[in-house]
Batch of 2 targets.
Target 1
Amino acid sequence: MNEKSHDISVGIIANPAAGSDIRRMVSAASGFSIAEKANIVRRFCLGMRTFGVTRAYVIPDQSGIAGSLIKQKKQGEDVLGERWPELEFLDMRAEDKAADTLAAVDLMIRKGVRLIGVLGGDGTHRLVAKNCGNTPMVALSTGTNNAFPQFQEATIAGIAAGLVASHAIPMDLAAKRNKVLRIAVDGETKDLALVDLCLTRDIWVGSRAIWKPEKVKDIFVTFAEADAIGLSSVAGLTNPIPRDLNQGLHLVLCPPGMGIQTLYAPIAPGLILPVGIAEMNTLNALEVKNLPRQRAFVTLDGEREFALREENEVAIWLDTEGPLTIDIPGVMRLAAADGMFNHLSRFFQKDSFHAQN
């Protein structure tokens, strides 16, 4: 056990760059300022502390979230009487890049955090999912399309996180397993996607975000919801796939007006475009799809990640043993049914913290 005596610790990943990609310029997407992200973390912390969490590990970012949190914590405790968990900034050099998230998750796992609160979009949650193993995420939306994380008030998410981290709600009742798509290149597993994996016709990166469906050849999805935003919405409007079904979907796209179907899909907030579908196939769990050799770019959860060459052998499959996420509404229902909101004294006593470790 790496936790300090009596500690119930969690990690917090608040991506300062989430929701700031080029889709802000080509669509009507709203954004989250650094100040608002810090406010979300504040509410998350207050909810967690009330229900048992004593320490939160945070990235020492360069964008201002960390500094804002220090000021908010001091003002909140000194002036407003707020009860915060201790904030401990990770001993790492942060450059506000994707590598920061991967390194921070590794450090948090080594410190024995019981869960990781994630503020970001699909891309941020994908990065956390790559390194978090069986440590669950509390997924909070602050990105662009947000197909994977669902909108939830941070105070409630913090309460649920505290209930789970303090073991008031057992993990086996609180967490849900998610599907992922995995891709192997020349026999080596290279990466994963939480929502969608696409092959595009681009042969260079340009902007990382993808919003032009005419450049997309194939869309693979883990789940497909009819009310989604992003490339997964094409699948959701064609053949919805629930999150808890052990299946995914593969679509082959074509120009609008051709193929088996043309539909108008919300590719980004406020950006509704025609998409042609040439072929649609169910993707069963662990069924390997070997792709034709081709030049293409691989897009994972809405962002271009790496190029494929014509000589590459590429395989894609659906893995149902992906990361865990906390079921926030489910935790709140269980806690309410058990009367946990009637007596909070147990969460304020250090002895009870120690007894639950």
Target 2
Amino acid sequence: MELDVKMESASLSIPIANPFALDVEGIARQIEAFVAAQGISLAGLDLRGLLPKMVRGIAGCEGGCPANALQLVESGFRSFELAYIEGGILTAKATIEGRELSLKMFPDF
């Protein structure tokens, strides 16, 4: 899996080697550092809650089979706007201090 993080023209790509042993804390710290370098704080956004849901929405059976990204999009997650893109891609967007943060999760298949 691959997680692409984008804020305006800056982007960060984070490979996820094993979605069933997700390092939520490590990934969240990378995203926080990336966003901080853009002069923004993620205070109030629940990345640590969102990331496992996105991975389970795409990767499969950890939270029950089959993976159900569409259900996650339908139920939503806090202040993130979620969308499912054909091909198994899941996106989450949030506006922080007037700027858009975009997370895009790509499956391995």
